[in-house]
């Protein structure tokens, strides 16, 4: 390929990439990985379902949801002697164009019981809230 063709291909790819960043929806994102990991006895969670729709097949990918009241089922980490962690339900009023990091808060590292909660939120870059 000559330089002119390469520069045209690069310009087209850059334009396509830039247009893909700007969203026309107001979807929000949920992730089970904590943003801030400094607090003791907090752990990542696995998002099982949102409003009855299951997401277990994509454990590390962010879950895209519409804004509004949501019922989120998460699974905490198992403790020694258990193959799975317990599941808890979190009711959350999801704001448009917001990324939520969820976590499990335990009373101690040996506790199986936990409280699901939001660890951190931030605006989704390039998202257009409706």
Provide the fold topology:
Elements: H1 3-21, E1 28-31, E2 42-43, E3 46-50, E4 53-54, E5 63-65, E6 68-75, E7 87-94, E8 98-105, E9 115-123
Parallel strand pairs: 1-8
Antiparallel strand pairs: 1-5, 2-8, 3-4, 3-6, 6-7, 8-9
What share of the residues does DSSP label as strand, in percent? 35-45%
State Rg.
Answer: 19 Å
State the secondary-structure class. Answer: mainly beta
Number of strands: 9
Number of domains: 1
Low-confidence stretches: 2-24
Description:
15% of the residues lie in helices and 38% in strands. It is mostly beta strands. The strands form 2 sheets. Strands 1, 2, 5, 8 and 9 form a 5-stranded mixed beta sheet that branches. A 4-stranded antiparallel beta sheet has the order 4-3-6-7, with no helix packed on it. Strand 3 and strand 4 form a beta hairpin.
Compact overview of the structure:
With 130 residues, the protein is mainly beta. The protein is 15% helix and 38% strand.
List keywords for this structure.
single chain, 130 residues, five-stranded mixed β-sheet, globular, disordered N terminus
């Amino acid at each position: 390929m000559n330089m002119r063709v390469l520069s045209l291909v690069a310009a087209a790819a850059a334009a396509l990439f830039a247009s893909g960043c700007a969203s026309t929806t107001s979807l929000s994102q949920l992730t089970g990985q904590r943003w801030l990991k400094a607090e003791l006895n907090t752990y990542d969670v696995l998002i099982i379902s949102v409003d009855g729709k299951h997401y277990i097949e994509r454990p590390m990918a962010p879950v895209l949801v519409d804004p509004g009241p949501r019922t989120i089922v998460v699974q905490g980490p198992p403790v020694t002697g258990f193959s799975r962690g317990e599941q808890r339900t979190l009711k959350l009023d999801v704001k448009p164009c917001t990324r939520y990091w969820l976590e499990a808060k335990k009373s101690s590292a040996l506790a199986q019981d936990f409280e699901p909660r939001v660890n951190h939120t931030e605006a989704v870059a390039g998202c257009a809230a409706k």
